[in-house]
Specification:
Number of strands: 10
Low-confidence stretches: none
Number of helices: 10
Radius of gyration: 18 Å
Helix content: 25-40%
Oligomer: single chain
Distance between the termini: 22 Å
Structural class: alpha/beta
Largest sheet: 8 strands, mixed
Order of helices and strands: EEEHEHEHEHHHEEHHEHEH
């Protein structure tokens, strides 16, 4: 299977609801479902390489679901930008899981979340009374934890909402590389493949101009955050983390500026006592394209 199927789920909200897109790999009726949730400005096709590897290494008996979080990729944009926050994203994931469970019952549920996707995962896994089809068995947190380094949030905020105007895919890929070198080494071919799903035609133009895929308004609530509020939120996130009962793998880029070594060590000593794996030469965040990254996550999820 070299291409996923594109599907949608209706998600209620206070302004009449929206559609969230998701990409489906593997067997649509498999009872083992792996949900892969991307980072702040990314989209579900980030996981193409990992999803294909999971399908191959499981013998095809797996369903890998990679949503485009609302405001990104093929999903709707929200009427109210204040809806672009983690609690609302978590509610959308519950709607998605309910739909998927209705299509084919889920008996094994695993979650992989990169950065923002990991925060959503902590909200889901840290509240045992949520209406999940089954509890999350295994949780992968990719370069994220309850405590986030403020300087990294400032760095991300400096480019968030600037969706650009590019004449070619390569020009766009080069621009994205300039702000994404912390993702670690990629060949030119790998980076172009990772960048291509990030692009959309600029509406209202007759030429081939391109822009980034996401709604610039996702920056609105992000920019309202303050360092004081972020520190206050840490206590709640640690409480959620300490409630997690899923077997947990913490993936960290050894050069990460978002997840400190101290926070990572604390995550191995409390809550689910995460198993920690670090990748040298990578910052925020590993992309699961390099074979050592794919192997580590595949072994955890399929073991």
């Amino acid at each position: 299977m070299t291409e996923p199927s594109l599907k949608h789920v209706y998600c209620p909200d206070e302004t009449g609801g929206h559609r969230m897109a998701y990409w489906q790999w593997g067997r649509p009726d498999s009872a083992h479902l792996v949900l892969c949730v991307h980072g702040l400005t990314r989209q579900g096709r980030d996981f193409d390489v990992l999803a294909q590897a999971l399908c191959e290494r499981s013998g095809g008996n797996i369903r890998v679901i990679c949503p485009d979080v609302v405001g990104r990729g093929e999903s709707d944009w929200l009427k109210d930008p204040m809806g672009y926050q983690v609690p609302a994203y978590a509610a959308d994931m519950l709607a998605l899981l309910a739909q998927l469970h209705g299509v084919a019952p889920i008996s094994t549920l695993d979650w992989l979340g990169t950065s923002m996707g990991g925060l959503i995962g902590m909200v889901i896994c840290g509240q045992p009374d949520l209406p999940l089809p089954v509890p999350v068995r295994r949780l992968v947190l990719n370069d994220v934890g309850p405590a986030l380094e403020w300087q990294a949030i400032v760095r991300i905020g400096a480019y968030l909402g600037q969706t650009g105007h590019f004449d070619t895919e390569q020009e766009a890929a080069d621009a994205m590389w300039a702000i994404s070198k912390s993702f670690g080494p990629h060949t030119p071919g790998q980076w172009l493949a990772l960048s291509r799903p990030m692009l959309r035609p600029v509406s209202g133009t007759s030429n081939s101009a391109l822009r980034l895929h996401y709604d610039p308004a996702i920056a609105v609530p992000f920019r309202l955050a303050t360092e004081e509020a972020a520190h206050q939120g840490e206590a709640k996130l640690w409480q959620l983390y300490d409630n997690i009962r899923s077997e947990t793998l913490l993936v960290r880029g050894a050069l990460s500026d978002l997840l400190s070594p101290e926070t990572a060590r604390a995550m191995t000593a409390r809550g689910p006592h995460a198993r920690l794996v670090e990748f040298a030469g990578v910052g925020h965040a590993p992309t699961f394209i390099a074979e050592d990254q794919v192997a580590a996550v595949s072994a955890f999820l399929l073991g």
